[in-house]
Amino acid sequence: MGAQKSIHAGKAKIDVNVDFTHKLCAALMLPPLRDNGNPLSLIIGSLCIKHPNLFGGSEKLDVSWDKGLYDSNILIAYRRPRPEWLAQQSFVIQHSISPEIGVHGLPIDNFSRSGSGGVNLCRFSAGVDLNEPASSNWSSTTSIKFEHVRPINDDGRSISRDIDGFPVTCSGGPHDNMVVLKQESHYAKANESSFSQLSLQIEQGMPVLSRWLIFNRFKFVASKGLKVGPAFFLTSLTGGSIVGDMAPYQAFAIGGLGSVRGYGEGAVGSGRSCLVVNNELTFPLNKVLEGTIFVDCGTDLGSGHHVPGNPALRHGKPGSGFGFGYGLRFKFHSGQFQIDYAINAFQQKSVYFGISNVVS
User: Fold this and answer.
1) What pTM did the predictor assign?
2) Are 236 and 222 in contact (CB under 8 A)?
3) Where does the Bacterial surface antigen (D15) domain start and stop, copy by copy (predicted)?
4) The CATH number of 3-29+36-357 is which of 2.40.160.50, 3.40.50.1240, 3.20.20.70, 1.10.260.40?
């Protein structure tokens, strides 16, 4: 249940989306993170303003605001026209607030769900994105941004320590600052019976000031899909590692939808390194409905105790785990709604709901 509206004001376009369905899904799959008694907090929505010719020279301005149950994100992007053979340049400003469940969340119900640990991240970033021209099957993006990260509690007040008294920032103070150089590369190749994808991401914290974070963070995702008769088999491998300065919120969180199903978000573990394997077989039931069976597993490669404050050990997370189950995929004109039923290594059951939209 929701509402969508598009408004044209001159050359600008305004898209408004308000969704009430998330209230039901969240109530079924998540324990309450917090309850402030405000009925508007149970509504999610988005506002997007686009102008295709801001100053008369094909400059594009995009302003978007997204509100979830417990998070919000504001993004402002300004793009100047450049020749196609040059990297496309965007100036980006972003501000977001989101609960930090993956590392500081508290596992409950035999790790099948994660509750609030009282830590939320307020992030501000500003910088430049450069989208390189695609060549063959490869595409890449380079960005350099200033980031300011300020942990807050559920009441919106700045904090420097978690509920156990351990620092939640690398600096030990109420915030962390960093300048991050980021390189992302994507490879994709597909035909009628199979596809292959590879995503590589490298982040480098630049030594601008002595108290700013200096680190190197690497992550990869490799996927392979293969048609098997009327069914489709998909396998993926995700891994990463970080060296240098590190705040707890930069750890790799393992567990949850998109990771190891059967566990709550980050309930398997959080470490300086990770490795996750997902296998899924999808088969058609009718024109709009698909069934799926899956097996997931993941590990922090024994690196959980290298995270400052060792939050995974303090919360009793195992560091490795597996889950298996089955699900349904409902296709509709603008996306897909999925339901997954999973069982983890502790024989605890979980149900996941998800909606993926096709953006025109």
Assistant:
1) 0.86
2) yes
3) 53-356
4) 2.40.160.50
- Average confidence (pLDDT) per 10 residues, the chain, 360 residues: 62 61 46 54 79 82 88 93 84 96 89 86 97 85 97 94 94 95 95 95 94 96 96 97 96 94 94 97 93 97 95 94 94 81 84 60
Helix, strand or coil, per DSSP, at residue 210: coil
Q: How far, in Å, CA of 75 to CA of 148, rounded?
A: 15
Domain boundaries, the chain: 3-29+36-357
Cα separations in angstroms, 26 against 111, 154, 233:
18, 18, 29
Contact 331, 270 (CB under 8 A): no
Alpha carbon separation from 308 to 9, 107, 150, 211 (Å, rounded): 50, 19, 17, 16
Give the pair of three-digit tokens for residue 252: 């790799």
**C-beta neighbour count of 63 within 10 angstroms:** 17
